Amino acid sequence: MAITVVGHKNPDADSITAAIAVADLLSKRGMEATPVIQGPATPDAAFVLKTFGLATPAIETDATGKDIALVDHSDLAQSMDNLDKAKVLFVVDHHKLGDVTTPNPLEMWVWPVGCSGTVIKAMYEFYGIEIPKGIAGALMLAILNDTVLFKSPTCTDADKKAVEGLAKLAGVADFKALGMDMLKIKGSVEGIPAVDLMNRDYKDFNMGGKKVGIGQVEVLDLGLLDKIKPALVEECKKLQKDGRHTVLLLLTDIMKEGSEILVVSSDASLVEKAFGGKVGGALNSMWVEGCMSRKKQVVPPMEKAFA
Amino acid sequence: MAITVVGHKNPDADSITAAIAVADLLSKRGMEATPVIQGPATPDAAFVLKTFGLATPAIETDATGKDIALVDHSDLAQSMDNLDKAKVLFVVDHHKLGDVTTPNPLEMWVWPVGCSGTVIKAMYEFYGIEIPKGIAGALMLAILNDTVLFKSPTCTDADKKAVEGLAKLAGVADFKALGMDMLKIKGSVEGIPAVDLMNRDYKDFNMGGKKVGIGQVEVLDLGLLDKIKPALVEECKKLQKDGRHTVLLLLTDIMKEGSEILVVSSDASLVEKAFGGKVGGALNSMWVEGCMSRKKQVVPPMEKAFA
């Protein structure tokens, strides 16, 4: 049976390119493998696929009876439906260890780096398999995306080194310029409905038994969001009414390097505890200086506060 | 803070040598790291440490406030107390993915091979660090132990290749003879109380919300256990009364390559379903031909039956 390779829900550049690359790698290791995605590609992911001429994987949401390779996540809430009725054989990730468990031994490559792409480049090297040019370029952009052009605190030396190596393989001379083009598209908000911005990079988490949703919108200048902020608060409220204890939306200013966090919660004091500040103002929000990474700067303090 | 490197409860050759080796490897990568064990070394582990002149790590059972590297397990039931109050930074394993989760990104090396030692040898190579002679020998014996001299169905080509490489590094000409010496000591049952045999290689699992204990005693000839079998059944019963749905004890005949499984369960039909046979006889047991590996041949069908 072919192995289905899948990233998290709401597939961004890293999740899609990781699925494509790991499927390629497993195929070249002698297994049959197919990349899939759980929903439409985000704007950054679409830019990456188009730039390097890669086909968009088919959408699949049900894991029942399948052999699965998980990339870029290990949380049930972010994975395919019925994962407990599938056989998870591989996990490639760079996040916290989630609540996926298996009855069978498996292969896992998980590193505390800025992007799954960095791990996957090392896997290709470990197995002595050449990285195809298009995949190299896509992995490169995925790393630049996840690390916000190396600015995010999640960025490690391994990520920078991987980008340099991948840029050479892909024949890209000025990777920073290409990365900035991607971030501009990713940060484009003009004419985009609030519900789409809310879902652009949204993930659910289980924190101390409570469902917590955290979305992120990254823009080059927070002022671009001024008009749409009240509508974004309404989207948070809708999600919270739908069975969530708390919904956060990070409005991240890439240039100022910080985030305004919109907070809709049954107990906002937990969020205040997590970030050591006060939620307030017309939008019920707080500014967190230096906060660019959900993974490294938002999820860990939130999990601690909810524990 | 120094990283505490720890294997599963009831530390066997793999758990102890993996803790020693990963602590050595992390130290040489520039971190402070100390191996510990959760209880006294099993006879096979003691033989390995003595043969290669390695110090027995100190016993520690509480993880509170520590930075932790888990080796040879990823299950809470097999780990230190208060692991939720520690920070898990590394996992090196060759089992199924257990229920440990983290709020922080981490480094994981998990492969579907016969022994953590095989993974650790590859880690040394990946990081370009030389394996010390004594640690090479200990890892070699750990692999021979976990794979029952390559006879177990868990054994892979990677395990065989690792043993050959490690034997050279350790300067061991006849690794099979040394491995057999270890298995003789491991399989020695004369004069050993039933409670000690029961605990020799015992692990608790959470299966579909139910606590299930599975122990294993490996001997060169099952006849050696004839007299003590009724006392072993009593030990299973004691453990089951102590809050477990089911307790199994695998009496594995290394030469015949199969196991008699002693069964004490609130619902033995689940065990029968798992192995497709009948539990019966004076000891309430079943013979499972070819069954040598708890990890590969007992835990997966049991988890499926309990799901």
Notable characteristics:
alpha/beta; Diaminopimelate Epimerase, Chain A, domain 1; five-stranded mixed β-sheet; inorganic pyrophosphatase (n-terminal core); homodimer; 21% strand; 307 residues; six-stranded parallel β-sheet
CATH class of the largest domain in chain A: Alpha Beta
Structural class of chain A: alpha/beta
Within CATH, the superfamily of the largest domain in chain A carries the name inorganic pyrophosphatase (n-terminal core)
Give a short account of the largest sheet of chain A: 6 strands, parallel
Task: Give the oligomer, counting copies of the same chain as homo and different chains as hetero.
Answer: homodimer
User: How many domain units of chain A?
Assistant: 2
User: How many H/I helical runs of chain A?
Assistant: 10
Q: Which architecture of the largest domain in chain A per CATH? A: Alpha-Beta Complex
What's the CATH topology name of the largest domain in chain A?
inorganic pyrophosphatase (n-terminal core)
Overall 3D form of chain A = globular
Spans of chain A of at least 5 consecutive residues whose pLDDT stays below 50 are none
In whole angstroms, the N-to-C terminal distance of chain A is 40 Å
Assess the beta-strand content of chain A as a share of residues: 15-25%
Descriptive overview:
Chain A is α/β, with parallel strands linked by helices. The first copy, chain A, folds into two domains: 3-185, inorganic pyrophosphatase (n-terminal core) (Alpha-Beta Complex), CATH 3.90.1640; 194-306, Roll (Diaminopimelate Epimerase, Chain A, domain 1). Helices cover 38% and strands 21% of the residues of chain A. A six-stranded parallel beta sheet of chain A has the order 3-2-1-4-5-6. The first copy, chain A, has a five-stranded mixed beta sheet with strand order 7-8-9-10-11. The longest helix of chain A is centred in the first third of the chain and has 16 residues, at 13-28. Chain A is globular and about 55 Å long. Chain A starts with a strand and ends with a helix. The mean pLDDT of chain A is 95.
